[in-house]
Amino acid sequence: MKIRTDFVTNSSSSSFIIARDEELSQTLKDVIINFVLEEMLGKKMLAPGSTEDQIQKVFEDEYINEDYQKEIRKALQEGKSIYGDCVCFECCEYDYAELLERLWKRLEESGGGNFVTIDGDLSY
Question: Any bridge partners for residue 19, and if so which?
């Protein structure tokens, strides 16, 4: 846990220190891309082959308005999958810190390059 000894404002922040090669290996780039896809770009809600019942269920469960429903149907017809999730802004700083910590862990475990978390404690 970090103890602040300097001036503290009402903003919430925490510092970190990492060590990495200047150039990221392809493995580390792949880990970052996969992490973003899995953790930050939503969960798959619908796919182009979704049935009308599945589509309607998502519309109802997620309270999707008619304008967005039209855009979703168009995207499905174009062969795109639909992803969604939510962000809680009341606790966003904690979610963001957790995302960073999980990304660093994956990068360290990948074995695809030199990446070390020196000070990854983002609690304050």
Answer: 116
- Rounded to the nearest angstrom, the gap between the alpha carbon of residue 113 and the centroid of all alpha carbons in its chain is 22
How far apart CA 50 and CA 83 sit, in angstroms, is: 13
In the structure encoding, which two tokens stand for residue 59, read together? 């519309």
Residues 6+ apart with CB under 8 A from 19: 114, 115, 116, 118
CB 110, CB 35: distance < 8 Å:
no
Q: Model's pTM, two decimal places?
A: 0.69
pLDDT digits (tens, 9 = 90+) for 59-79: 999 999 999 999 999 999 999
Nearest to 100 by CA among 67, 77, 69, 123: 123
